[in-house]
Write a structure and sequence with these properties.
7 strands
């Protein structure tokens, strides 16, 4: 990470980006995905579990249903508020805290399982994130992540957007968390065992690709923020490129959109 980066300003921009739009709308399409992710983790009642960059609770809620004592942490207070409402509706007792994946507000070795699905991967200093995930997990405990891959559909979407709106200089691409060699390097000797398994997220939308681009443009903070940085001609060009990417990947033939999106599931045992 370049020392010329104003980290405080960058963090504030990232927080603002995730607070823009209404991520809950986007997350609502991925509820099953969170449940599937949790179903592959052996959660025992009473275990202490942390969900890092928990968003609106797609992973936190199924963990709580499994009987664990779960805490969710995120930088965006509006997402935490949605998560609290969802938990309350189900009568689930979950602690939701505002906090940063690079500076988790918990003591060392305080959780049996530390999770992050499509969350911690976006923090700008991945080595610090890896160190924090390891720090708060007890020895012998599990660290589990779901991370978009560079070659999967989301990885391609990030690439497409970056052509129009370059990412902040000096910040490693988030999708490197979806590259097994990089993950192994980042966790290093902090884990005694590490398994990386490619998984498929099924994206289904009732709208055609143009409608899906509009959905993300309206509700997904990073897409909304990218469009806001462009003039009208730039916005038109970005929309066309994004729509083309969805059209190319779309397997549906009935006017809806169905895309298979690869992510890497990481399970590491804390050394």
């Amino acid at each position: 990470m370049s020392s010329t980066i104003d980290l405080t300003a960058l963090k504030q921009r990232m927080r603002d980006t995730w607070m823009a739009g209404d991520f809950g709308v986007i997350a609502s399409y991925n509820v099953k995905l969170g449940e599937q992710f949790v179903s592959r983790i052996k959660i025992q009642p009473g275990m202490k579990v942390l969900d890092v960059a928990c968003g609106t609770g797609n992973v936190t809620l199924p963990v709580a249903r499994a009987g664990a004592t779960v805490t969710g942490v995120d930088i965006a207070p509006n997402l935490l508020e949605q998560a609290r409402v969802r938990a309350a509706k189900e009568g689930l007792k979950i602690q939701f805290d505002e906090g940063d994946a690079e500076s988790l507000p918990y003591p060392d070795a305080s959780f049996d399982i530390v999770l992050s699905m499509f969350g911690a991967m976006f923090a700008p200093q991945p080595e610090i994130v890896a160190a924090e995930l390891l720090r708060v997990c007890r020895p012998g405990g599990l660290i589990a992540m779901g991370n978009w891959t560079p070659t999967g559909f989301t990885g391609q979407m990030f690439k497409t957007t970056a052509k129009h709106v370059p990412p902040p200089p000096g910040v490693p691409p988030p999708v490197l968390w979806g590259d097994e060699a990089t993950v192994r390097q980042r966790f290093g000797s902090g884990v005694s065992k590490l398994t990386c398994t490619p998984q498929i997220a099924e994206f289904r939308y009732d709208a055609p690709p143009a409608g899906v681009v509009e959905l993300f443009r309206r509700y997904f903070g990073p897409t909304q923020t990218a469009f806001a940085k462009l003039d009208p001609a730039g916005q038109t060009a970005l929309a066309a490129d994004l729509e083309n990417a969805w059209v190319q990947a779309n397997e549906a033939k009935d006017g809806t959109t169905f895309v298979r999106n690869e992510y890497l599931e990481v399970h590491g045992v804390r050394a």
